[in-house]
Write a structure and sequence with these properties.
Layout: E1 7-12, H1 20-31, H2 33-38, E2 41-47, H3 52-62, E3 65-72, E4 75-82
Parallel strand pairs: 1-2
Antiparallel strand pairs: 2-4, 3-4
Helix pairs in contact: 1-3
Length: 87
């Protein structure tokens, strides 16, 4: 059985504040829901807004997706994918 690496789409939300970051993330999650659910796609949101590190993950988890948040070099990375993929 071969494992395929999901395609990753990155969205730069730096400079935006909530609720703009949340609304943008939710729009993109809804736009790409088929790819996310199949595991063919991951979405990466890059932000410098700390509030987004709780609002976006909470919302997408409630939608049934897996989420991982990391912080480095003054930015946060919010990785959204299919639930159960180690997120």
């Amino acid at each position: 059985m071969t494992m395929t690496v999901p395609e990753e789409l990155e969205f730069d939300l730096r400079g935006q504040i909530c609720p703009s970051t949340l609304l943008t993330a939710l729009r993109e999650v809804n736009r790409h829901k088929e790819g996310l659910r199949s595991g063919e796609l991951r979405l990466l949101f890059v932000t410098d807004n700390r509030t987004a590190t709780s609002t976006i993950p909470d919302a997408v988890r409630n939608m049934g997706y897996g989420v991982q948040v990391s912080h480095a070099d003054g930015t946060y990375r919010i990785d959204v994918g299919r639930s159960g993929e180690g997120r």
